[in-house]
Design brief:
Elements: H1 2-11, H2 27-36, E1 45-50, H3 55-62, E2 67-72, H4 80-87, E3 96-97, H5 102-117, H6 121-135
Helix pairs in contact: 1-5, 2-3, 5-6
Length: 136
């Protein structure tokens, strides 16, 4: 599923990095990643998680960089658990919640491009070109 995000970011010319971590199994790694992201030049975080889907919220709790969450269908609940966990964040710790699965994975990249496009003209232009192509 996350490969859809990567493919879309590449299509739009957005630089990215991929890390695998768990809010439950590697919480120290999540904290370290979130608290050092801004210093490394990261301007948007995209998380993908299933089940209790805590990753996006934990990242958001450690940084004020925008966090976009992709709920994954990884349990018997087919992503409904992850969708609700990603969407139901307490006030002051927002996570932008996308759809479950591949549509959400692609939209996470598009939403990141919208955010980055406010600052980077090349990304904005690439995203606008993609959107124009939807009409053709």
């Amino acid at each position: 599923v996350v490969q859809e995000t990567v493919n879309t970011l590449e299509q739009l010319g957005v630089d990215y990095e991929v890390r695998v971590m768990s809010a439950h199994r590697t919480p120290e790694r999540v904290q370290e990643y979130a608290t050092t992201a801004r210093d490394r030049g990261i301007e948007v975080l995209i998380s993908a998680a299933g089940g209790s889907a805590a990753l996006g919220g934990v990242l958001a709790s450690w940084t004020t960089i925008p966090v976009i969450g992709i709920p994954l269908a990884s349990s018997e609940l087919k992503g409904m658990d992850a969708l609700l966990a990603t969407a139901q964040m307490p006030p002051g710790i927002p996570v932008a919640c996308m759809a479950v699965g591949t549509w959400g994975a692609r939209n996470a990249a598009f939403f990141a491009a919208e955010i980055l496009g406010l600052k980077y003209e090349a990304i904005r232009e690439a995203y606008e070109k993609y959107r124009r192509g939807l009409r053709d």
